[in-house]
Write a structure and sequence with these properties.
Strand 2 and strand 3 form a beta hairpin. It is built from 7 helices and 3 strands; from the N terminus they run βααββααααα. The chain is an alpha+beta fold. The relative contact order is 0.19. Helix 1 packs across helix 7 and helix 4 runs antiparallel to helix 6. A 3-stranded antiparallel sheet has the order 1-3-2.
Length: 177
C-alpha cells in the first residue's frame, strides 16, 4: 500500500579467502553502486529517473560471498496518479542490463581508478580514531602480513587491473540472482 518500493537483488557465490579476490569484489561494488559516479546511480537514477537511491553492497559470511544491488523507486505513475509497478519492472531490468554489461565489457581505467580511490578512502575512514587504529593493529598482528596488513592491501589495490574486475564480475554474477 506504499507509494515506494525497495528492491534488493542478491548474488551468492563461494569465496576462497584470497585477499586480492576480496578487494576485487569490493572494487566491483564501488563501480556498480558505490557513489554518484557509479554505473547504477548514473544509469538508473540519472538517466532513467527510476530511483530515489541506488547502491550495491558486498559482504561475506564464512566461505559465502553476497553481492546485493538495491534501489528505492516509486510505485506510482506520476503522470496519471495511478498505482503502477512499471518502475519496479524497469528497475529489475536495469539491474540485469548493468550486470550483463559488466560481465561482457571491461571497465574503463577511469572507473577503475575512481573505485580504487573510493576503496582506499573507505579503509582509511575506518581508522580516523586512535581507538580504531589500535584495534586494527592488534587484529592485523594475527594475519600473515602482521601490522603491515593495510599497506599490503593498498599495494594489492594498486595492482588490480580491468581484467581482474572483468573476471571477478563473470565469477560473482555467474548464477541467477
Amino acid at each position: 500500500k506504499r507509494n515506494q518500493a525497495e528492491i534488493l537483488q542478491g548474488y551468492k557465490f563461494s569465496i576462497n579467502g584470497n585477499i586480492k579476490d576480496d578487494l576485487c569484489l569490493q572494487i566491483l561494488t564501488h563501480i556498480l553502486g558505490g557513489s554518484p559516479s557509479s554505473r547504477l546511480f548514473s544509469d538508473l537514477r540519472e538517466k532513467r529517473h527510476l530511483a530515489y537511491s541506488v547502491n550495491s553492497h558486498y559482504f561475506n559470511i564464512d566461505d559465502i560471498g553476497v553481492m546485493t544491488l538495491a534501489i528505492e523507486t516509486t510505485a506510482n505513475n506520476l503522470e496519471t496518479g495511478e498505482k503502477s509497478y512499471d518502475n519496479i519492472e524497469k528497475s529489475i531490468k536495469g539491474f540485469s542490463e548493468n550486470i550483463e554489461k559488466i560481465k561482457t565489457e571491461k571497465v574503463s581505467e577511469t572507473e577503475l581508478e575512481t573505485a580504487k580511490k573510493a576503496l582506499k578512502t573507505a579503509i582509511l575512514s575506518n581508522l580516523e580514531m586512535n581507538a580504531d587504529q589500535t584495534i586494527k593493529l592488534s587484529s592485523d598482528v594475527t594475519t600473515p602480513y602482521g601490522i603491515n596488513y593495510i599497506n599490503e592491501k593498498f599495494d594489492l589495490i594498486d595492482s588490480i587491473t580491468a581484467d581482474d574486475i572483468f573476471n571477478t564480475a563473470k565469477y560473482g554474477f555467474k548464477s541467477n540472482p
